[in-house]
Amino acid sequence: MSSILRNVLALPLRGLTWLGGQGTRAVAAIAFIAVAVPPLGALLRPYVTEAIFLLLCISFMRVDLVALYGHLRRPALVAAATAWTTFGVPLIVALAAYATGLTTSSPGLALALMLQGMASPMMASPALAALMGLDATLVLVTLVTSTALVPFTASLFAGLFLDGVLNISPTTLGLKLLGILAASLLAATIIRWIFGAEAIQRQKRPIDGFNIIILLVFASAVMGDVASELIADPLFTIGVALLAFAVYFTLLAATTLIFRRVGTERAFAIGLMVSQRNLGLMLAATAGALPATTWLYFALTQFPIHLAPYMLMPIARRVIASANSSAAAVASGTN
């Protein structure tokens, strides 16, 4: 009986291990599943906050403490990346929205873009960076610093560019963000203390699988109405989707170019983080009281977020290989 029970209990673990082994393919499939099964979105919509909490908890739990201390001893790069994602990106996005006349021609779309610019990086960005073999610790440290600042920077830019269209309370948002960060860090610390870092590393694949399931919860909750919007107005919906891809890859390319001097691998990791904005927290901060076009854009941004890691995997492998070759060359030259 005990062996049967063990086998039954092992089934979910084997399933998570298999799912974790699918990597970026599974992340890419999430976007299509979320759109194809609208009832799943209606079912999971109440659990967006819990999904965000678990994604960040997993990121904290898996952090490489040695690499973390290394980044904290050399804070210049983290400070520069934080300044870019919290001040540079929202400023440029807002100015572009005004310069192109989008604030007049499509206020809902302009609002979506400015909220996207003001958002902190997505909670799942360290996990996605890890799936691609990039420096997830650098991403996590910058995620934490930029998330801590977003209550103040979001209210600042809202006052400058939204002119009363959006009312963001920095106190409420700040308490919510700090609560999520503190609780997830505490939970991750307890898990690491109970099981140990080595055990967590050994269970990398099933943890990846569980992370993918949580990503599905969030994507389904946000994208549940995309199919109906596509049927109602296909040209507009496709146009908004193309804009979402354009913004994603523009942020990725511009950030990688700006930070190229610190190494292509690190610059690419920062670019991946900056291009993935945490629109879930912005939805929570506004209580979902947004125009329909803003909601549609938020939903369609999930496509580049989930497809890009799979599409960019060959580039990430070349970047990592090049960085390893350069490190090996430097090491051999010093011997």
From TrEMBL:
<feature type="transmembrane region" description="Helical">
    <location>
        <begin position="207"/>
        <end position="224"/>
    </location>
</feature>
<feature type="transmembrane region" description="Helical">
    <location>
        <begin position="236"/>
        <end position="259"/>
    </location>
</feature>
<dbReference type="InterPro" id="IPR038770">
    <property type="entry name" value="Na+/solute_symporter_sf"/>
</dbReference>
<keyword id="KW-0812">Transmembrane</keyword>
<keyword id="KW-1133">Transmembrane helix</keyword>
<feature type="transmembrane region" description="Helical">
    <location>
        <begin position="52"/>
        <end position="70"/>
    </location>
</feature>
<protein>
    <submittedName>
        <fullName>Na+-dependent transporter</fullName>
    </submittedName>
</protein>
<feature type="transmembrane region" description="Helical">
    <location>
        <begin position="77"/>
        <end position="98"/>
    </location>
</feature>
<feature type="transmembrane region" description="Helical">
    <location>
        <begin position="279"/>
        <end position="300"/>
    </location>
</feature>
<feature type="transmembrane region" description="Helical">
    <location>
        <begin position="110"/>
        <end position="131"/>
    </location>
</feature>
<feature type="transmembrane region" description="Helical">
    <location>
        <begin position="173"/>
        <end position="195"/>
    </location>
</feature>
<feature type="transmembrane region" description="Helical">
    <location>
        <begin position="138"/>
        <end position="161"/>
    </location>
</feature>
<keyword id="KW-0472">Membrane</keyword>
